[in-house]
């Protein structure tokens, strides 16, 4: 088991949404210190104030993880405040929520930059410190969109497919190297944080509550789970995609479960900087 008590924890996109909930729950579990990276200074200030009631020190850094230079610079600053990171939660994520032909180059660069490259560079910048921990854990929050295609999120899905592939490869590499670092890949469906405001829940796939999914993530960390897929229908995706011909799968996902129509009503929120 991975124990959160007395651990140094870093959460990207941790000033709002499920990142902030995870921060609060980690502190309730007895975290030794908490580091929050976020692009939004206003949210960071509010998060620091909200979490300051806990005894553990809170360190907040403004960083745009789509820019790798900022990541490595902020990692150096972070390691001046804490000796190393025991638990890294790569949570920051964004979505443009448009059809591919409507995306502008900045949408594409930002989505891949935050959701995939930001996750990779953040982990790389802190990996040396993670290896110093007696028991470290990396949590990569991907998406069910990384397990199947969906109209209206082509670049988002590609970033999450990449995140899952990278996370799995990292897990196996660390296992082969006998590093004492566990890796959990989280692949949830839609979460009710505002990021996916307006989406229509597919059949038998309810929109997840932030409290529910963060409780599941904490349990997944504590039990060293390799994958966390939620709700239940997401667990069936790899099996269904593996046994069904593509056109049959498209019919089941699109016509029966209406997954392919779920983004038709998407509105999102104005500030997409945090999950």
Describe what you observe in this structure.
With 275 residues, this protein is α/β, with parallel strands linked by helices. The chain has one domain (8-261): 3-Layer(aba) Sandwich (Rossmann fold), CATH 3.40.50.720. Strand 1, helix 1 and strand 2 form a beta-alpha-beta unit. The protein is built from eight helices and seven strands. Helix 4 packs parallel to helix 5. It has a seven-stranded parallel beta sheet with strand order 3-2-1-4-5-6-7, sandwiched between helices.
Question: Which helices and strands appear, and what pairs or packs with what?
Answer:
Layout (H helix, E strand, L loop, with lengths): L7 E5 L4 H12 L4 E6 L2 H11 L6 E5 L5 H14 L5 E4 L14 H28 L3 E6 L12 H23 L4 E8 L21 H13 L4 E4 L1 H12 L2 H11 L19
Parallel strand pairs: 1-2, 1-4, 2-3, 4-5, 5-6, 6-7
Helix pairs in contact: 1-6, 3-4, 4-5
CATH fold annotation: Rossmann fold
Shape: globular
**Radius of gyration from the alpha-carbon trace, in angstroms:** 18 Å
What structural category characterises the helix and strand content?
A: alpha/beta
Taking all residues together, what is the mean pLDDT?
96
> Which architecture does the CATH hierarchy give at level 2?
3-Layer(aba) Sandwich
Numbering strands along the chain, what is their spatial order in the largest sheet?
3-2-1-4-5-6-7
Short description:
The chain has 8 helices and 7 strands. With 275 residues, it is an alpha/beta fold.
């Amino acid at each position: 088991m991975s124990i959160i008590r007395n651990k140094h924890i870093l959460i990207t996109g941790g000033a709002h949404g499920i990142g902030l909930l995870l921060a609060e729950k980690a502190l309730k579990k007895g975290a030794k210190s908490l580091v929050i990276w976020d692009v939004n200074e206003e949210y960071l200030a509010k998060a620091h104030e909200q979490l300051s009631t806990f005894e553990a020190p809170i360190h907040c850094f403004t960083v745009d993880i789509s820019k790798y230079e900022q990541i490595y610079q902020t990692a150096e600053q972070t390691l001046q405040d804490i000796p190393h990171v025991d638990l890294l939660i790569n949570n920051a994520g964004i979505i443009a929520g448009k059809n591919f032909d409507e995306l502008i180059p900045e949408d594409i660069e930002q989505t891949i930059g935050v959701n995939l490259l930001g996750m990779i560079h953040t982990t790389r910048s802190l990996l040396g410190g993670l290896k110093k921990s007696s028991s470290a854990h990396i949590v990569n929050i991907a998406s069910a969109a990384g397990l199947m295609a969906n109209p209206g999120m082509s670049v988002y899905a590609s970033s999450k497919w990449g995140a899952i592939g990278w996370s799995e490869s990292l897990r196996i590499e660390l296992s082969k190297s006998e590093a004492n670092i566990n890796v959990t890949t989280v692949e949830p469906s839609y979460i009710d944080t505002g990021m996916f405001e307006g989406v229509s829940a597919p059949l038998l796939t309810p929109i997840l509550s932030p409290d529910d999914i963060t409780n599941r993530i904490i349990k997944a960390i504590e039990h060293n789970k390799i994958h966390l897929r939620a709700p239940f229908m997401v667990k069936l995706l790899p099996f269904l995609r593996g046994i069904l011909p593509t056109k049959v799968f498209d019919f089941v996902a699109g016509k029966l479960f209406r997954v392919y129509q779920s983004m038709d009503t998407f509105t999102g929120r104005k500030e997409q900087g945090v999950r």
